Each structure stands twice: as C-alpha cells, then as structure tokens.
From TrEMBL:
Coiled coil start-end: none
SUPFAM superfamilies per the UniProt record, alphabetical: alpha/beta-Hydrolases
An example Gene Ontology molecular-function term: hydrolase activity
Short name of one Pfam family: Peptidase_S9
UniProt keyword list: Hydrolase
Protein name, UniProt field: Alpha/beta hydrolase
InterPro entries listed in its UniProt record: AB_hydrolase_fold (IPR029058), GDXG_lipolytic_enzyme (IPR050300), Peptidase_S9_cat (IPR001375)
Taxonomic superkingdom: Bacteria
Domain Peptidase S9 prolyl oligopeptidase catalytic: 54-211
Amino acid sequence: MSGRNGTILVLPGGGYQLHAPHEAEPVAAWLEGLGWHARVVRYPVGVAHPAPLDAVRAAIAAEKATGEGPVGVIGFSAGGHLAGHAALAPDSAPDERADFAILAYPVVSMVSDPHPRSRAVLLGEDVGDEDATAVSLESLVRPDSPPVFVWHTTGDPVVPASHSLLLARALADAGVAHELHLFPGEVHGVGLAEDDPAAGWTAHAARWLEERAAPLLPERAQGVSVPDWSV
C-alpha cells in the first residue's frame, strides 16, 4: 500500500558488495515520517551489470502496477549510482523507470575519477571506456529525464564531489529539473548525517519532495504550478 504521497524505494550503498545498514531501514523510517511509503530494496551485490539495475526496475514496475502514485528512488554512494541509473537509463520501459531520484554522495561516473571498487564489481577489471561510459550517469541524461535531487560533501575522500558536479552539469545542460547541495566536511557514507555538518540535507530533501515529487500524484497534478528548483 502506498503512502499519501506515493512510494520511494531505498537503495543503500556499499560499493556494490554489501548493503550499508544505516542507509537502509533508518532512511525508510524517515521517509515514512514524511508521508511516503518506503521500502528497502536489497538489490543483488557482487554481481555484474545489469543484474542490480534489473532488480530495481522490477521493484519499480511492481510498485507502479498498484497505480497508487509516483515511484521514486533514493540511493547512497553505489546505491546512488543505481538509483540514478534507474531514473536515467534510456532503455527502461516506462513502468520500470523511476519518476524522481534523490542521490546522496553518489557514484556517478565510471570513467572520470571512478570509484574503483564499484567499477570493478559492476563492470570487471578490464572494462573499456565505451562500456564504462554506457553506465556513467552523466552520459545518460536526456531532456525528458525525471527530476533529481543530489547532495555531497566537498571533501568526500571516497567518492569525490566532482561526481555530483558532473551530474549537475549534465542535468543543467539538458534542462532537467534538479537541485544540488554541497556541504562542508571530509566524510562519506554518513546516511541521514545526524550530528554532522551535512545534517541539513534531510530538510532540503523533504522540502524538495513536497514541491517537486508530491505534485506528481494524479489528484495533485492537475493545475499545480511547480516551482523551478533547477540549479
């Protein structure tokens, strides 16, 4: 059953090798508190592309089959890459595609300063640039891509903030509605970031969900003027 605002699928990070617990159920509980139905998707790990993406596509399609509202995704680190992939992949069927995405310190590019572990698990050690580009989020953005909210810390030592900047530039160039937040700190994998300088991301995301995602509900879509929060 969907919440009053629809459904958000939670994709925890872990370098495509595991699911970080603090980026799973605690995040779903936070979203439930905002009025969204949320559930954690434990996509397959330690396996090559497209298995993780196919699992999330299936989960999106199952939620959309209920017809009870938009279906978004939220992902962290490697889960952020997967969430972005679920929103941006050009070969997804309409019922497999996320309606919006929230990406937290995401892995974006598999070509430009890639996260080595995520790239190796997803694509193998000897992948060429053409195949790596095919799963790099910045190369998948199209003018009809869904809205995206992305945040990062400026000194992230694991996945550089340049990943989020690269994605934001691609979204801006394509005219896609999006919002980017950069927070001070040299941290990665902070989840909800309680007691951290990046803690403000949840308030920004909650407001963005209300202004950008909730109006996608059928009963709220007619006649709604949505502010342009593009960067």
